[in-house]
Target: Phosphopantetheinyl transferase
Amino acid sequence: MTTIAFCKISDMPIEWQCYLPFLENDVVQRVERMRKREDQLRTVCAHLLTKMMLVTTFNKGLSEVRFSKDSNGKYQLGQDLHFNLSHSGSYVACAISTFPVGIDVEQQVTRDFSIFQALWSTEESHLYKLLEQDAFYTLWTAKESYGKYKGFGLHDSLMEATIRQDGTIHHPASRVKARTIPFFLAPGYSAAVCLEDSLETVTHVQWAQIKTFFMKNVGTYAKIELTN
Model:
């Protein structure tokens, strides 16, 4: 099964740095290099949210949540569980599955959508009204989630794939087992997940829940190093 959780970063407290000891050194160092506070909040919240969901939904002990990276730099958790993170605007989201998974969330902004036409396959250009904001972001998040499922972003080979309106994915060179599913995040946002199994739940997690979970674990969590 695949489960999705999301959280709003504007609910985080001003003393959010006290949660850094629960994150891997690699993540902490990345956060410290960030210049924008919003980027720091999104990264910290996304990782805390994922850790909490792995423990509470998949019966993992917090000390078992040992993130590693594959050859593409994608986070993974051993062989039995896969997860992926995304954040945009005021929201962060994570998808956790027993199969490879990708997720993308985007805050919709007005832009010149015509400059992105080279990103779409011929079939997609006919299926979607890609000069319209909602259609553009529907396909954009689906393509991004597929790219993250495969382990690359909007890579050249991703342009060869066609994502149809029912979420099925056609690639001329290979059979794709996964499909994309849009889900509701908040007004003014688009979101999609790419998965091989079923989408079980989409849960809006309040920051208070994350706070309670980690405060209960103060003193019981042994900080671990990120395995590269």
In short: The domain at 102-195 is CATH 3.90.470.20 (Ribosomal Protein L22; Chain A). The chain has five helices and eleven strands. The chain has two domains: 1-97+197-228, 102-195. Confidence is low (pLDDT under 50) at residues 222-228.
